[in-house]
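Researcher: Re-running this chain for the archive, since the previous output was lost when a drive failed. Same request as before.
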Amino acid sequence: MCAVPIGPEHSHLADIQDHRLLCACRACYLLFTDGGASRGHYRVVPESYRYNADFALSPAQWDAMGIPVNLAFLFYQSDQGRYVAFYPSPGGATESLLDLAGWNEVVAGDPLLQGLVPDVEAVLLRRLDDTFECHLVPIDACYELVGIVRQYWEGFAGGEDVWRRIDAFFAGVQERSRG
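Model: Regenerated structure tokens:
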């Protein structure tokens, strides 16, 4: 934002109108913690991670959403007035264009999901057989996962290296959730 050099660990702002993330020094990040600072154009990406141990989603509900893989993230996009779902792929973040009406029912029954900050916090889901691992994470964490998949995917099934890295990513998310 201000051209001050930043290191590998830094904060992010979401440009709500242009649907993009911006790297920010700590001072710029703090400037935008008050939502009125940019009249809603920029919103800080929170830094908290939470594990949702009470998350309930059935395999049938997952299948009804039509997400063809076992990893997805969903968030409320305020300018569209609806939840959107993406999944990481070798081509980047792929948006699911299917009806997410069933997801609205899941959110309605889960107080943690109802408290997510639109545009900047997401529900990160990983399907493990017939159960789901659910984390509430900053949106930039989801795009970090997209980058891992995009950079390390090989062949049709991804290869062992990408799956080790995905497992390590989720272990890191779990660790940050405990803190």
